[in-house]
């Protein structure tokens, strides 16, 4: 027999996913829910904690539990995670490798990757499809000398997993820049952008632990599917 808190979780999660409970709705108080479900406050708290952990609600001190728009995915700004790691929280995710080639960098790419010679650079295009919609275009440029041996299979899975577990290199930090721009012709060709007039572009400069810059990325997002989140602490 299923634990009662799991039954409560399933019922509320289903109502949120179906739209029966709308985003930004404040759920009833814990006391009201104990009466509604004829159970203990501890059971209600377990159900709410699970809803919070799985991204259905956000607990706000002094207010209660507020329903999150489940059609948007949290994209951590301050973190450095691969799309594969983010995708573990999503359903129906697919990566399409649209390009994998070695190029000689032009002046702009040399500047982006701090190159002073004509080192070969991997140029990688990856389309991220979620629930059948193409909503992210990742354009990656990596210095081939530092990250050798890339294949389409690796790019479709996880470049970071390959770098860390096959090449045994340590990815340490990234500098990020976020801008909102009009879609390019390439964006419109490769992404499902009907009705959208902007894309959110996250530019990443990614470094190894010895401060060597090895990757420059432009991650171009359709703006309706992601919530860009960060955590900040005030210093005194």
UniProtKB/TrEMBL annotation:
<dbReference type="Pfam" id="PF07702">
    <property type="entry name" value="UTRA"/>
</dbReference>
<keyword id="KW-0678">Repressor</keyword>
<protein>
    <recommendedName>
        <fullName>Trehalose operon repressor</fullName>
    </recommendedName>
</protein>
<dbReference type="InterPro" id="IPR000524">
    <property type="entry name" value="Tscrpt_reg_HTH_GntR"/>
</dbReference>
<dbReference type="InterPro" id="IPR050679">
    <property type="entry name" value="Bact_HTH_transcr_reg"/>
</dbReference>
<dbReference type="Pfam" id="PF00392">
    <property type="entry name" value="GntR"/>
</dbReference>
<dbReference type="GO" id="GO:0045892">
    <property type="term" value="P:negative regulation of DNA-templated transcription"/>
</dbReference>
<dbReference type="GO" id="GO:0003677">
    <property type="term" value="F:DNA binding"/>
</dbReference>
<dbReference type="GO" id="GO:0003700">
    <property type="term" value="F:DNA-binding transcription factor activity"/>
</dbReference>
<keyword id="KW-0804">Transcription</keyword>
<dbReference type="InterPro" id="IPR036390">
    <property type="entry name" value="WH_DNA-bd_sf"/>
</dbReference>
<keyword id="KW-0805">Transcription regulation</keyword>
<dbReference type="InterPro" id="IPR028978">
    <property type="entry name" value="Chorismate_lyase_/UTRA_dom_sf"/>
</dbReference>
<keyword id="KW-0238">DNA-binding</keyword>
<dbReference type="InterPro" id="IPR036388">
    <property type="entry name" value="WH-like_DNA-bd_sf"/>
</dbReference>
<feature type="domain" description="HTH gntR-type">
    <location>
        <begin position="2"/>
        <end position="70"/>
    </location>
</feature>
<dbReference type="InterPro" id="IPR011663">
    <property type="entry name" value="UTRA"/>
</dbReference>
<dbReference type="InterPro" id="IPR012770">
    <property type="entry name" value="TreR"/>
</dbReference>
């Amino acid at each position: 027999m299923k634990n009662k808190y799991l039954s409560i979780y399933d019922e509320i999660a289903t109502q949120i996913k179906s739209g029966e409970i709308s985003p930004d709705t404040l759920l009833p108080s814990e006391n009201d829910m104990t009466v509604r479900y004829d159970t203990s406050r501890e059971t209600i708290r377990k159900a709410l904690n699970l809803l919070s952990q799985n991204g259905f609600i956000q607990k706000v001190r002094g207010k209660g539990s507020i329903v999150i728009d489940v059609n948007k995915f949290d994209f951590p700004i301050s973190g450095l995670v691969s799309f594969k790691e983010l995708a573990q929280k999503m359903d129906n995710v697919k990566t399409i490798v649209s390009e994998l080639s070695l190029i000689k960098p032009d002046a702009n790419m040399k500047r982006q990757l701090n190159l002073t010679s004509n080192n070969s650079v991997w140029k990688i295009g990856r389309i991220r499809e979620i629930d059948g919609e193409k909503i992210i275009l990742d354009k990656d440029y990596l210095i081939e000398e530092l990250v050798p041996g890339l294949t389409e299979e690796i790019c479709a899975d996880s470049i970071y997993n390959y770098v860390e577990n096959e090449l045994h290199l340590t990815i340490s930090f990234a500098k990020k820049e976020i801008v909102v721009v009009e879609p390019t012709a390439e964006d419109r060709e490769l992404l499902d952008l009907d009705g959208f007039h902007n894309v959110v572009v996250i530019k990443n400069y990614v470094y190894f632990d010895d401060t060597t810059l090895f990757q420059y990325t432009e991650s171009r997002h359709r703006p309706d599917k992601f919530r860009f989140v960060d955590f900040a602490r005030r210093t005194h």
